[in-house]
Amino acid sequence: MQLKAGTKLHSSVCDTDVMVIKGSGDVALTCGGAEMVIARSGASGDVDPAFASGTAMGKRYQSADGQVELLCIKPGKGTLAIDGVPLEIKAAKALPSSD
């Protein structure tokens, strides 16, 4: 699948919807063990138990190398992954202290 910033993607096995924040090129992006799609067509299949930890609304998910970043705009039961490697929730940046 070709990623491009601003693209909305939908899971084909659960309710998860994401928006691409950062990343480009051809990537094997999955949710719940099934490939993400551009057009919502309804859930058709079951979530793979190995990829069933779910997604959280409003959280940013990124690849280990930081090249791909996704924003969850609708939560679901599937886990986001690239090439079978689950994406991590992006940690918030620490704000400078104000003494």
Architecture overview:
By secondary structure, the chain is mainly beta. The chain has one domain. The protein contains no helices and eleven strands. The protein has strands at 2-3, 8-10, 17-22, 25-26, 29-31, 34-35, 60-62, 69-74, 80-82, 85-86, 88-89. Strands 2-3-8-7-11 form a five-stranded antiparallel sheet, with no helix packed on it. Strands 6-5-9-10 form a four-stranded antiparallel sheet, with no helix packed on it. A hairpin with a 2-residue loop joins strand 9 (80-82) and strand 10. It is globular and about 55 Å long.
Task: Give a short summary of the structure.
With 99 residues, the protein is mainly β. It has strands at 2-3, 8-10, 17-22, 25-26, 29-31, 34-35, 60-62, 69-74, 80-82, 85-86, 88-89.
